[in-house]
């Protein structure tokens, strides 16, 4: 285990950093935050890219260097400190890992493509709309798969995986701001809905709500953020 330190979380409001913030706070780990000013595109600055060459958020500074990729950070924290996922010798460790990687490698990238279709289709709005419709169907299928799987999970909750899924569910309901989001209904995913309700009772969630301006029901009935500082996009 690395020497105990105050971690440094580079964040922007309502970005994937909120998942890591929840995990750190829930685990009682000391950390400080440093705002990445997205309005000024600070994530593309030389200083930030020295920590995260991909220019994405979050980045977590640790004794082992800067970590990036949300799933990797969650896994590292779980293995380093315990309590955020099954231990390596837990009988359900493999089950937890496969759904963590499913969320990181399948669900989250699909959301990113839907939020920024121009990065994948170019500037033609018709192509962007077609891609978004395709992704809405794909994401719906992914969430049904997760909802069915989560009903049979046998590891202590909440874990970093719960926080990751809750963040993705929030974004389905809030972004993109200029599109019709009636395709998404959290109540259609009973187990995931219950997961979000439980997370909203945690002290770490109350802290997150204040820190990033996410409102009283950030996962079950989310609204656009009103952060005290910084910008979500």
TrEMBL record:
It comes from the Bacteria. Gene3D superfamilies: 1.20.1050.10, Glutaredoxin (3.40.30.10). It comes from Pseudosulfitobacter koreensis. Residues 89-219 form the GST C-terminal domain. This is Glutathione S-transferase family protein. Residues 5-85 form the GST N-terminal domain. PROSITE patterns: GST_CTER, GST_NTER.
């Amino acid at each position: 285990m690395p020497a105990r330190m105050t971690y440094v979380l580079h964040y922007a409001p309502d970005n994937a950093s909120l998942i890591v913030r929840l995990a750190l706070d829930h685990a009682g780990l000391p950390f400080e935050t440093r705002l990445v000013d997205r309005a000024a595109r600070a994530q593309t600055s030389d200083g930030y890219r020295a920590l995260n060459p991909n220019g994405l958020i979050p980045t977590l500074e640790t004794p082992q260097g800067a970590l990036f990729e949300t799933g990797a950070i969650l896994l590292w924290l779980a293995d380093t400190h315990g309590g955020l996922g099954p231990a390596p010798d837990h009988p359900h460790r493999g089950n937890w890992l496969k759904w963590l990687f499913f969320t990181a490698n399948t669900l989250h990238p699909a959301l990113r493509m839907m939020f920024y279709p121009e990065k994948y289709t170019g500037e033609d709005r018709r192509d962007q709309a077609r891609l978004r419709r395709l992704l809405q169907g794909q994401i719906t299928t992914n969430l049904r798969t997760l909802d069915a799987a989560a009903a049979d999970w046998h590891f202590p909750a909440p874990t970093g995986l719960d926080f990751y899924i809750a963040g993705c569910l929030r974004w389905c309901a809030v972004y993109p701001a200029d599109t019709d989001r009636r395709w998404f209904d959290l109540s259609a995913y009973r187990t995931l809905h219950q997961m979000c309700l439980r997370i909203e009772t945690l002290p770490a969630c109350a802290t997150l709500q204040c820190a990033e301006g996410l409102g009283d029901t950030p996962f079950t009935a989310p609204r656009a953020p009103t952060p005290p500082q910084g910008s979500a996009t």
